[in-house]
Amino acid sequence: MTTGRTDDSSQTIPDFRDGIKKDVAEIKFLIHDLRVEGFFNEILHYHVTLNTDLEIYNIEQAQVLHAADVQELKSKLGAARKAFQDYSNAVKSFSPDRTILLLGRRYVDTIHETCHLILSPLWGRSDQVLSFLPQEARSVRSRRHYRNCISWLYGVHLRIAAFREESNDASARAEFDIAEDVRDFTLDVVRGYVVEKSEARVELLLERMDPAVIVGRRQRFRRMYFNLVMNAVDAMSGRKAGAVHVSTVVEGDRVALRVRDDGVGMAPEKIAQLLSDRQTLDGEIHSLGFVFVRQTVAEFGGELAIESTPGKGTTMTLRLPYQKGKILAPDPTYRSKYRLPEKYRSLAIEPETAQAAAASAATASAAAAAPAPREEMPAAKDREEERACGRLLFEAYQKSRAQFPGCIFAMAVTEDDRVEMFTHKPYERDWNISHEDLSPMHYQATFRGRIEEDELKAPIVILKPPQSLSEYFGFKEVPEAERGLERYTRMVRDEAIRMARKLIATGLSPQIQVLLSGANQFFPAAPEFHGTTPFALELLARQKLSAGES
Fold it and tell me: Is the dihedral of CA 391, 476, 444, 430 positive or negative?
């Protein structure tokens, strides 16, 4: 393992701490953080698809109106691309600072205007138009993905507004609870980015969240945290499964914000490069994120440490001073300005019934402690699928009509080896299917998995543990007083073993290869499960349960 550390005394980057150099650096940092191009392309692709569906199904009047909306979007995106090209050329050619600042602000303005257009209820009219189309239409079936992108762009719109407000009062500092802010910003913005960027292959897990009041520019803190998550997701870009673990832990007179991934890791020289000073940002348009992180840590009076093992992952730890004993009530004014409205926060889940919609709304609010009602399948079907779930999964994978065949599934096994939930669906040609589509009520509370082809065209199983500790305990009906991280780890570990045994007993090959996300948390004594090398399903099935087996 390699480690590195820096503190505020090494954060001197003298040529952009104030004046126009500082303004140029700030606009560069913002543009680096926005990450909107791919989402804009997805929005345009969706609306072109929707317009094609309207033409295919002879909905002429709606098609004419929607075609005009699409043309307006294309015009906005064309202006945004040109603005970015002008800005990029100015940076790379070492244009004067005032030119870079002007062109950077112009580009940010075009992004803000494009987001405003897309978010306007008077533009696109997709919800009304979709009501005319049948369920098998491509645009109807990809609606969840589109709405996730909309949610992300709403967050971009808010971040630009906050940046402008902060720029007008750069000395503005506020007290805020680090745990509450990380939790809110993750639910509003960061989780949606991780889902879409990683094609739902990377989990973002909030773990221990100690409350602690820190002081500084709140929006800048959020952007710093987002940069850490972006780096973690990028480190797992080649992985079929992975996890980003986030925690805030009070340690003496500091609170530690940790972002840990199980990605490719870093060599010592890379860590040294990240922690070293950059004397200038002139001509720089990429690789700005970590410079921003270091500057922000220094501004908050903290220190930064990096621990990494090549091939196994990286942990970024920010230790910041906090106000001992201070407790803050939630700030409703701030929340109303910088939190996503409820209709956008719940877009990642596409409810299929009124009951599911109610459960989704309850989950989105922090106060949802009661478990959601169980999904039920007909008893006969349930018994049939329990007898054959392994075979059904493999057959669905074989029958998949997608360009890259596969099958997605969700599964839960009780402590008495009974399958209490099993649902699956093969990949289809034109449908970017997600676990939310399978089980909108319980997708964070159960094991999820995929069967896909590996590089050699052989089948491989990717398993992901439950995403939410509270929802898992709710689904398992564990009393509040008996919940805790240790019990969660034990229960999830044992359920993984029981599920492997059940899949083998019902027709899945014991030799099929497996990747298990978060394996180092649940199976720390089984290094063969860690990293990027798959292992045979039977190795998981052979593990001993926590209760002890002879």
Answer: positive
Give this prediction's pTM: 0.68
Q: pLDDT tens per residue, the chain (550 residues)?
A: 666 676 544 444 444 455 788 888 889 888 888 888 888 998 999 898 888 888 888 888 888 888 888 999 999 999 999 999 999 999 999 999 999 999 999 999 999 999 999 988 778 777 777 888 888 888 887 887 788 788 888 888 888 988 888 777 756 788 999 999 999 888 878 887 887 777 777 888 888 899 999 999 998 899 899 989 988 888 887 777 788 899 999 999 999 999 998 888 888 888 887 787 665 666 655 567 788 888 899 999 999 999 988 888 899 999 999 999 888 887 777 767 777 666 665 443 333 323 333 333 333 333 333 333 333 433 434 444 556 899 999 999 988 888 788 898 999 999 999 998 898 888 876 555 665 555 656 767 899 999 998 878 889 999 989 888 888 998 899 998 999 989 999 999 999 999 999 999 999 999 999 999 888 889 999 989 987 789 999 999 999 999 766 5
The two tokens of residue 18 are 């104030």
Distance between CA atoms of residues 535 and 533, nearest Å: 7
Q: Where are the domains of the chain?
A: 2-338, 379-541
Q: What does the alpha-carbon distance between residue 486 and residue 502 come to, in Å, rounded to a whole number?
A: 24
Domain 2-338, architecture per CATH: 2-Layer Sandwich (3.30)
Own/partner long-range contacts of 163-168 (Cβ < 8 Å, ≥24 apart): 163/26, 163/30, 163/108, 163/219, 165/219, 166/217, 166/219, 166/220, 167/23, 167/26
> What is d(CA 361, CA 372) in angstroms, rounded to the nearest whole number?
11
User: 56-80: b or e for each residue (b if 16 or more CB lie within 10 Å)?
Assistant: eeeeeebbeebeebeeebeebbebb
Roughly what angle, to the nearest 10 degrees, separates helices 97-119 and 143-168?
A: 140
